[in-house]
Amino acid sequence: MATTIPTVDKNLDAARAAVVAEIARTDSKASLLLAFDGVLIAGLIGLADKSLPTPVKIFGTLAVLALGIAVVLLLLVVRPCLSGADRASFPFWATLDEDQIRARMQTDTRPASIRVLSVIALAKFTRLRRAIDLSLTALALLALAAASTLA
């Protein structure tokens, strides 16, 4: 059975909406993790001036380092992409005048938009995944720090 134009239109619209939703999910997850990591860093900084055993200080310092890198990655997740190099999104349209925008609307930009948004979503998810891995590493280091006080 041949693909009809209405089916292609429907599929393009659905694909674009799905990618936009994935980007929104990464931004929400990154925001939650930023808050979580921020609380952990604040708590660790509050302990910095305390007299603690050397292993606790070492594990704590490594945890702060891991959390700091995770925070940078999370900030990169929520950082807007404004390059406009894709020729299918608002940063590009902002460089055009009304007639140029009208001319661009004569062609279907959804495939280009889906591609560009997918690249953005993949980069965000990759950074989010690395930030989660670093946050988990920091928690493991904090567990080691806590365990070293019992030894």
TrEMBL record:
<dbReference type="GO" id="GO:0005886">
    <property type="term" value="C:plasma membrane"/>
</dbReference>
<feature type="domain" description="Pycsar effector protein">
    <location>
        <begin position="12"/>
        <end position="147"/>
    </location>
</feature>
<dbReference type="Pfam" id="PF18967">
    <property type="entry name" value="PycTM"/>
</dbReference>
<dbReference type="InterPro" id="IPR043760">
    <property type="entry name" value="PycTM_dom"/>
</dbReference>
<keyword id="KW-0812">Transmembrane</keyword>
<keyword id="KW-0051">Antiviral defense</keyword>
<keyword id="KW-1003">Cell membrane</keyword>
<keyword id="KW-1133">Transmembrane helix</keyword>
<keyword id="KW-0472">Membrane</keyword>
<feature type="transmembrane region" description="Helical">
    <location>
        <begin position="32"/>
        <end position="52"/>
    </location>
</feature>
<feature type="transmembrane region" description="Helical">
    <location>
        <begin position="131"/>
        <end position="150"/>
    </location>
</feature>
<dbReference type="GO" id="GO:0051607">
    <property type="term" value="P:defense response to virus"/>
</dbReference>
<dbReference type="GO" id="GO:0000166">
    <property type="term" value="F:nucleotide binding"/>
</dbReference>
<protein>
    <submittedName>
        <fullName>Integral membrane plasmid transfer protein</fullName>
    </submittedName>
</protein>
<keyword id="KW-0547">Nucleotide-binding</keyword>
<feature type="transmembrane region" description="Helical">
    <location>
        <begin position="58"/>
        <end position="78"/>
    </location>
</feature>
